[in-house]
Design brief:
Length: about 325
């Protein structure tokens, strides 16, 4: 890690102004890591701005909205203001995402020349090229894990509020410290706690709307067990998000006897998404590869165009039938 931290610092030190951008529909890992990095940059006496799509807080989920309202020290730029803040010495740091089309504001890539990408997701073929630094480590639980290690490396105190938001982000990305956690994850959770991360405030941030909960509960009610050990949920709507599919697959894994779980649903661009999770015995990456996707043994996904949800469900059941 030290090599990458030194490299990152070396590049950042060349610039006076740093924009930080994450993915669309930011979550607490995205906004928490952005705030953590922005705070560090301010300590380094740099101008640092978090890039958001809109000032309208209603556009963000309640967790992110609370985070933005609570942390007063941050400065933001928006699509209509970032160009006035820009000069030759501006770099864009992209966190928690590495595909152009998933960025909070992809068009900024056409304007800003200097780009750094840092992510913890499984590398997709359509990654952002022409960067000054491109670093992905998919063994990391979260972007927060990276940024808190970076802060620890330089001994920067992130303060109670940002540490709390970051710890909540880590909790989201690991589904309550159940998935993708390593010794390093807990070490960083301990570091955030040592800076004052507050568990009551964290719980407040993590509260979700009753509507979101009920929508998901309704889908899960319609889920079923296939071949005794497979939990499967087919969402009967056309406006799913990747995050929603992932949450449902993760929840299905909590049911007894379930060794692997799959959530299938249609996104608003008509592609069909599958999110797959496993306890470890069943390799969901192999299965997702057969469906045109990829990932890890316990965490994988696929996106399929030109098929209906029903067709994808049938295909998946057939592939599962072959291996079970
Ligand atoms: Mn993340």
């Amino acid at each position: 890690m030290e090599t990458i931290f030194n490299k990152l610092t070396e590049i950042l030190s060349k610039y006076d102004r740093i924009f930080i951008m994450s993915h669309q529909n930011p979550d607490l890992d995205a906004i928490g890591s952005s705030m953590g990095l922005s705070h560090m940059l301010r300590e380094m006496k740099k101008d640092s701005y978090i890039f958001l799509k809109t000032k309208d807080k209603k556009e963000y989920n309640s967790s992110v909205r609370q985070a933005i309202e609570k942390v007063q020290e941050m400065e933001y730029v928006y699509p209509n203001t970032y160009q006035e803040k820009m000069d030759k010495s501006t770099v864009l740091v992209i966190l928690d995402v590495h595909q152009r089309e998933r960025l909070e504001y992809p068009e900024a890539l056409d304007v800003i020349e200097n780009v750094i990408v840092l992510d913890h997701h499984i590398k997709n073929n359509s990654y952002i090229k022409e960067t000054e630094l491109f670093y992905i480590d998919s063994t990391m639980s979260s972007m927060v894990e990276f940024i808190s290690s970076y802060a620890k490396y330089y001994g920067v105190n992130l303060g109670i509020l940002i540490s709390t938001i970051m710890l909540a982000g880590m909790e989201i990305d690991t589904n309550g410290f159940n998935l993708k956690t390593t010794e390093k994850t807990f070490e960083m959770a301990a570091y955030l706690t040592s800076m004052g991360a507050d568990s009551v405030l964290k719980q407040t941030l993590l509260k979700e709307s009753k509507d979101d909960y009920l929508r998901r509960a309704d889908f899960i009610k319609g889920s079923f067990i296939f071949h005794k050990v497979i939990g499967m949920c087919v969402l009967p709507v056309t406006d799913c998000s990747k995050e929603e599919l992932a949450e449902i697959a993760e929840e299905l894994l909590n049911f007894e006897d379930v060794e692997a779980s799959f959530a299938i649903g249609q996104f608003s661009d008509n592609t069909i998404g599958i999110s797959a999770r496993s306890m470890g015995k069943i390799d969901v990456c192999e299965i997702m590869k057969k469906m045109g996707g990829g990932g890890h043994v316990t965490n994988a996904a696929s996106q399929i165009s030109d098929k209906t949800v029903k067709e994808v469900e049938r295909m998946l059941k057939k592939k599962l039938g072959e291996i079970l």
